[in-house]
Amino acid sequence: MRRGFLGAAPPKRAETPPEPRGDPEDGLGFDRAFERALLAQEAGRATEASSSSSDRTLGVTLRSSAANAASLDGALTRHWPHGHVIVPSADGHADNLMLMLHGRGDVPAPFAKLARSMALPRTCCVALQGPHPIPFVDDGRAWFTFMDQESFEPIDGSDPTDTRRVDSLDRVVTRLANLIDALTDPDADADADDAAPTPTWPRSRVHLFGFSDGGTVALTVLTRAHAERKGRLGGCATVCASLLPEQIKSLVSRERDDGSSGDDGSSGAPTPVTLTAGESDRVVSVSSVRETADVLIDANPGHVASIHATPGKGHAMVGGERGEGEMRHLMEFWSLTLW
Question: pTM higher than 0.90 for the full model?
Answer without folding.
Answer: no
